[in-house]
UniProtKB/TrEMBL annotation:
Residues 23-148 form the Acyl-coenzyme A oxidase N-terminal domain. GO terms for cellular component: peroxisome. FAD binds at residues 154, 193. It is found in: Peroxisome. This is Acyl-coenzyme A oxidase. InterPro entries: ACOX_C_alpha1, Acyl-CoA_ox_N, Acyl-CoA_Oxase/DH_mid-dom_sf, Acyl-CoA_oxidase, Acyl-CoA_oxidase_C, AcylCo_DH-like_C, AcylCoA_DH/ox_N_sf, AcylCoA_DH/oxidase_NM_dom_sf. The keyword Flavoprotein applies.
Amino acid sequence: MTKGTQADVNPDLKKERLKCNFNIQEVTFIIDGGKDKTLQRKKIEDVALNIAASIDEVPEECLNLKERYDNAVRKSCVYSNIVKNELLEITGLEALGSPGLRRTADAFFKDVSPFMLHLGMFVPTIIGQCTPEQQAHWLPKALEMQIIGAYAQTELGHGTFIRGLETTATYDPATEEFVLHSPTLTSTKWWAGGLGNTANHCIVVAQLYTKGQCHGTHPFIVPIRDLDTHEPFPGVKVGDVGIRMGFNTADNGFLRFNQYRIPRENMMMKNAKVMKDGTYVKVARHEKLTYGTMVFVRVTLVMEAAFNLAKAATIAVRYSAVRRQSQPKPGEPEPQILDYPTQQHKLFICIATAHALQLTGLWLWRTFEAVLADMRKGDTDSLPELHALSSCLKAVSTSDSAALIEQCRFACGGHGYMLSSNLPLLYSFVTATRTYEGDYTVLLLQTARFLVKAWEQAESGKVLTPTVAYLACAAAKEKVVWSDSVDGMIRSFQAVAAGKIAACAENIKRLTKTGTSLEDAWQLSTVRLVAASEAHCRAMICQAYWHEVTRLTASCSASVKIVMEQLATLYLVYWALETTGDLLRYSTICESELNKLQLKYEELLALIRPNAVGLVDAFDFRDEILHSTLGAYDGRVYERLMEEALKSPLNETSVQSSFHKYIRPLAKGKL
Ligand SMILES: CCCCCCCC/C=C\CCCCCCCCCCCCCC(=O)SCCNC(=O)CCNC(=O)[C@H](O)C(C)(C)COP(=O)(O)OP(=O)(O)OC[C@H]1O[C@@H](n2cnc3c(N)ncnc32)[C@H](O)[C@@H]1OP(=O)(O)O
Ligand SMILES: Cc1cc2nc3c(=O)[nH]c(=O)nc-3n(C[C@H](O)[C@H](O)[C@H](O)COP(=O)(O)OP(=O)(O)OC[C@H]3O[C@@H](n4cnc5c(N)ncnc54)[C@H](O)[C@@H]3O)c2cc1C
């Protein structure tokens, strides 16, 4: 954070910081995943942010579309050099996935870098889908930025249904080449970040044909532009998809092929190969390993959701400590809006959710690494569980994060609507994460497939994998006894999930017994399947969050343990109150217990109140990363709003030319 001198800090924020009764740094270490991670992040920030501080002369949002893109490319090149020459020096290749790198990128770009997909998907796909020889060829070029790549899977006609993609890659043994072709308008690749004008290479997912047979979708590395002139190669038509709600500097593009040839070796051959004579050889032990990059990105998106929500919460809580409004008690000064319980209700769940998602995300990352280690030994047994886990966690975390960022904007009143608050841009960025890398509903339905199967296994007394082990107890189908202890609440959330999964399984069984096909019975049950999957995910987040808080605070100071537990309890109680209908159905909770729960929630808000600013300070965002007039460390909200307003091009002259061209002629009846 940029602390400046204490004298510059808004007096209300100063007082808030004096009230804080826990060690902020200890909480920062927990959120970052350990003291070493915090120190590494800060080192990276120190290097990168010195340069970022003076990177923009004019605010990004004041530039026109083309200028914004050019400016984003300029900054991406500066940033790439820092990554290559400085950050990789500090931490080696590990820097690429480090929170420090992710955070510092935000100091350079308010919107999105056109290189994001290069680092976010092109490089990971090379690592995950190429043979060691192919990696040795492509990876150094990509890391040195000698080539810039995009990931083009989605088409104009299909995003979700990958098996329905239309682009073809047909092997020609005579020349040992693949011929890429886009047979229809709807087969045009669409949406790939960095593709429109920036990338010279692209990972293309296409239907592989060899010896007259289709073997389904496979990834290929495709050069699309000349490295010197940057002109698209003959047979390649590429461009920008048009103006979007956000991501306008991300250069999302379209791509069409007309019988375009690439060497056989450009097929990414870790999981399947085509031999010189055209023989197709399957290498992978699991059908869906070609979907590996998507699983990887879904896993990372859970922490991405936490990160962005933490930024919004920091902005809104600091602003709410500075902002004073209304007069609930006659004759008394206007209170800080943070003192209103309704404001606390809007904001403390944002802090708690950021913690919940960050700690669950770190746990998911460790699970992902364990599954990868198993797969390196040839064991793919845990892949279905990882797919189910990452699908629902990606769906719920991105959806919650987007909704709560919007809530933070509402919590900032009119000033939250200013682009300079950074809340609108944060929202438009995060709401896209609910759609990309697998739409919310679609991914919850993927998890539901796993849950229904697990339910059937539970009913037949089979041993269940860890994340669904709770179904074994629930197979007895009795209402769970409600208790407002943490364990009691988690048990109840699991009972709700189990009850909903059981109801889905029963409904499918009932329908199929009466002659409905299994596919139709599934479709007729999808509304409840999505709800069951979400309930399962919520129970899992509650369990993982509480488990991680207990584990990570075991050796912390007492005050940190208390505040972390208060937040985690708030998260559980909040969701119990949000889902009272479900609890009434699947647990023994009654009216008086619901009243008790509401009181407990209100008590927690009051307990957290004095630590609210300390808790957001613990996210440790430097001002350069927050980019917010409302959320800066010093709380000089009104001064910053005025300073930013004066940067608007509309304030460059006191009279606009449109006055002379239109308004005056209109007033004089001469238009
Ligand atoms: C040095 C360089 C410096 C540069 C500096 C630059 C600065 C950069 C700045 C910052 C860097 C930060 C980077 C970090 C951020 C990362 C951001 C990334 C941004 C990403 C943008 C978006 C990209 C995309 O959107 S790509 C496209 C994604 N598309 C999708 O997700 C499509 C969704 N659809 C599907 O996944 C599938 O089609 C499906 C799962 C819905 C259905 O597939 P299917 O039809 O084939 O399967 P079935 O439904 O029939 O199921 C069959 C069976 O398979 C199981 N299954 C399905 N999927 C999987 C899987 N993935 N793994 C395992 N198993 C799977 C399924 O469960 C079924 O099993 P059953 O047992 O039930 O039969
Ligand atoms: C900002 C942004 C960046 C992107 N970047 C990339 C990129 O770099 N590379 C890339 O390849 N792609 C990218 N995408 C595309 C993205 O992955 C897809 O948009 C996403 O996977 C959703 O697919 P779709 O657009 O086909 O939606 P659709 O599948 O058409 O969804 C439309 C609606 O239909 C519903 N629906 C679809 N199928 C089902 C089903 N089986 N059951 C129930 N409901 C269903 C959905 O829930 C949704 O409500 C990006 C998208 C965005 C918005």
